[in-house]
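Hi there. Long-time user, first ticket. I'm pasting a complex I've been working with (about 682 residues overall). I'd like to know whether the download I got is complete or cut off, because the file seemed smaller than I expected. Thanks.
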Amino acid sequence: MPPRQHRPTLKDLATRLGISETAASFALNGRPGVSEQTRERVLALAEELNWAPNHAARTLSGITSMTVGFVLTRDVQEFGMESFYLRLLTGAQFVLSSRGYALLFQMTHSVDEELAVLRRWSKERRVEGVIISDLRRADPRPAFLKELGLPAVLAGGPDPKRLLPAVTVDDGVAMRLLVEHLQQTGCRRLAYVSGPAELLHVHRRIGAFRKAASGVLADPGVVHTDYSEEQGLAATRRLIEADDRPDALVFDNEVLAVAGVRALRAAGLLAEISVASCEDSAICVALQPSLTAVRRDPTVFGEAVARKLLRLVDSPDGPAARPDIEAQQPTIVVRESTPQR
Amino acid sequence: MPPRQHRPTLKDLATRLGISETAASFALNGRPGVSEQTRERVLALAEELNWAPNHAARTLSGITSMTVGFVLTRDVQEFGMESFYLRLLTGAQFVLSSRGYALLFQMTHSVDEELAVLRRWSKERRVEGVIISDLRRADPRPAFLKELGLPAVLAGGPDPKRLLPAVTVDDGVAMRLLVEHLQQTGCRRLAYVSGPAELLHVHRRIGAFRKAASGVLADPGVVHTDYSEEQGLAATRRLIEADDRPDALVFDNEVLAVAGVRALRAAGLLAEISVASCEDSAICVALQPSLTAVRRDPTVFGEAVARKLLRLVDSPDGPAARPDIEAQQPTIVVRESTPQR
DNA sequence: TTCCTAAACTAAAGCGCATTAGTTCACCTC
DNA sequence: GAGGTGAACTAATGCGCTTTAGTTTAGGAA
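Hi, the file is complete. Here it is re-exported in full:
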C-alpha cells in the first residue's frame, strides 16, 4: 500500500499561483473580492491538484460539519429480521447525501449507551443534528437532547411532552382501516399481538386499535411480546387456546405475523383465523397465505425525517421546530390471510 | 430550542486550574509530564464541566479521525428486501464502535457516484479507511483506492488483481455442500438462477457450482437476473418450460428464491422440483415450504470485515494487508424444499 | 557551595481553513 | 490636482487541540 498521499492545502494553491490564501479561499467559496480571472485560475489549479478542503479544518473554523447522526438501540439478535430500519435508513440517507450531508450511524445495546453516544457526538461537535427512534416510556432522550441544544427529530413520534419535533404516522387511520376490513370480512373477536409495552408507539397503536374496535366489536385482547419469534409463537398459542378464541389476529410487525402464522398452521387453525400485519414487507407477499398488511413506505418515512432534520438544522427555531409532520397516510393491502368469512 | 451550549475548551480547563493548556492536554491524554495531583484535578474538572475534545480540532492536529466509511451502491428499489446488508452493517458497526470508531455510511446509485464519494472522503481526510462490497467486472475501485492510498477492505472478495485485501466466503465449499445434498436427495438436473453477470461473486459462485456438479451431474443451466423479483419469476418460468426441465433450482439469494417458489407454485411444479437458496434469512424459514439454504452469518462476516479494516488502518503495511481472510465456513440448512425423491 | 538531573510545567508553533480588518491602486468627480 | 470610491488583494487572527522545544524548580551528588 503506497503511503497516503500528501494532500495539497490551500496554501499550496496560493503559493503556486502567487496569491494569498485569502484570495484562494474567496475564489473557491464563490465570495466577492477576487477578479473573475483569478477565480478561474484558482479553480483550475484546484481541479488539477485534486484539492478539496480538509474537513476537520473547515469544521474547526466554524463551518457546519455537514454531518448528522443516527443512533439505533436494538437487540442485535432480532435485528436484521425487520426490514423497517434498513428502509428508513435508505430513505434518510438519500435525502441527506443529496444535500451534501453525511450520515454517522451507530447501533447500541441500550438507551443508556445511546445517551452516551449522543452526549459524545454533541460534546465533540461531531454532528449538527440527530435522528432518534423508538421512544419509550419515561424516555430520557428528548429532555437530554433539548438540554444539549442538539437538533433532533424523532422518527415515529409524537413525543408526548412535545420536547422534540417528530415525523409521525397516523396510527388511528391505520387501525381504523384494519378493523373495518376485518369486520367487513366477517370477523368479530379481534386480538392484537404487540411489541414491548415500554415502547410508546406500541402503546399508541394498541390504543388506536382498541378505539377503532370500540362500539363495533368486543374489546380486543392484547398480548405483549419482545418482538422475537419465540414470543410471537407463544403469544399466538396462548390466544388461540383461550376459551373465547379470537377469529382474527393482528400482529404489530411482520416478524410476529410470520411466527403467528406458524403457530396457527401448527394448530390447524390457519383456515379459520384471519391474520394481518401492521408492517408490510416482501415476506408478507411471499408467505402462504400472503398476509394482509398495513402499508406505509418506510423509505418515504425516512426521507421525511431527514428533510425535517435538515430544516431544523438550518434554522433551529424556525417553523420546523414546531409541528409534527405526518409522513403519509397509511393504506391497507388486502391479501389472502383475511378472506371473506 | 435553547441555543447550542458553549462547550468548554481545553483553555477553559487550564485557565480555571491556573495551569497551561499543555499541562491539561498531557493530563487528559495520559502522558508523562504532569504530577499525579495535577492530573487528577484536570480530570475532575473535565468531568465536572462535561468536557470532551473537539473532534475537528483533534483530527486537525493529526490525530486519527476515528472514522471509517462504508459506501454501498444499490438500486433503491430492490434494497431492503435482502437482509444481508443490514446484517453486515450491524456486525461491522458493533466491532467499530467497541473500538471507538464511528461509521460514516452512504448509499449511492452507481459505481461512478461511489467513486466520487470515496474520492471526496479521502481528499477531505474524513475517514481512515473504507469498506466496499459487490466487486464488479473491471471494477475501478480497487485501483482507485490503491492510488488514493486509502486503506480499504473488500467485503466478499477476493479481488482478482489482489489490489485490495478482502474478507472472503468459500463459495467452493458452499456449492459443494449444496450440490452434494441435492444429488443425495435424488436430483439429477440442476439449474442456477443467479444475479447480474457483472458482479464477480455471481461469477465465482456459478463457477463453483458448475465445478461441484461436474463429473457427477449434467452441466447445470445458468440464468442471470438483476436480483429483482420480476426477473426471478421470469427466469424460473423459462427454466421450467424448457424441454429438459431441471429437477432442482438453486437461487442466488432469498429474494430470487421466493420469486422462484411463486413461479413453481403457479406452474403446479412445486412438489416435483427441489429449491435451495444461497442466502439464508427469516423468510426461508417462514416460507411454505421452508427453504433449504446455505447459511453464513452476515453479522459475523461484518465483524470480520471491520476487524480486518481496523488492523489495516493501524498498520497499513502490516500483515493484514496481505492474506485474504475467510470469514467462516458456510453450512447448509436442510429444510422442506429439498425432500428425498 | 556548585553543578547536574529529572520532574513539572509553559510558551509557542502548527494543523488547514475562514474571516476581519486592513492596504493598494486604478479610476472618477468636481 | 485634491479627495473620494470601489475593486482586488493581503496580513493577521482565530478555531481547539497536539506537540516540540524550552524554562523553572527541587533534590541529590560532589
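A couple of notes from our side: Chain B touches chain A through 68 residues (CB under 8 Å). Chain B has three domains: 10-53, 67-169+299-326, 171-295.
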